[in-house]
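Notebook entry, structure prediction.
Reason for the run: the old model in the group folder had no record of what sequence produced it. Starting over properly, with the input documented here first.
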Amino acid sequence: MKPKVLVVDDQPINIKLLQRKFERQDMIVLVAYNGRECLDIVSKEVPDIILLDVMMPEMDGIEICQRLKANTATETIPIIFITANASKEGKLAGLNVGAVDYITKPIDLDETLARVRTQLRLQQMFNENVELQKRLGDVRKSAAIGAITQGIAHNLNNLLGVVVGYLD
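New structure, fully documented this time:
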């Protein structure tokens, strides 16, 4: 299955560059030019990863990230911030609201692709881990039911043995 990447930036040229790079790598690219579009797209079609510009009009990337992380349906989507602000405070603010990585402009397309692939692999491992934990829980339930059933059968056999003994 092709990974879905949502690119959110108010600069069309940045979106075009990333879109072409990811589409050449056989990825599905969704685009949004502002925070509202981003939230609308995510509510309809959940992407595997989001590349999110921090500085945008109306709603900045920090607020969008906070909203996505507050929603249980979208809280596990990895978000990589893209910004021209390379300050330590800016990076820490982004990482503290839930971003998994931080890329500064001008964007190095090859580095960005490598970071996206890394996050997609981590997300895949996370999803596999969740599935394994679910299966383990099911196996534990089955084992508990089996143990209880065995205990009941054992007690019934003992009672039947006593009843047969008395009848004899």
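Summary: Helices lie at 12-24, 35-44, 61-70, 88-96, 109-167.
The old model has been moved to the deprecated folder.
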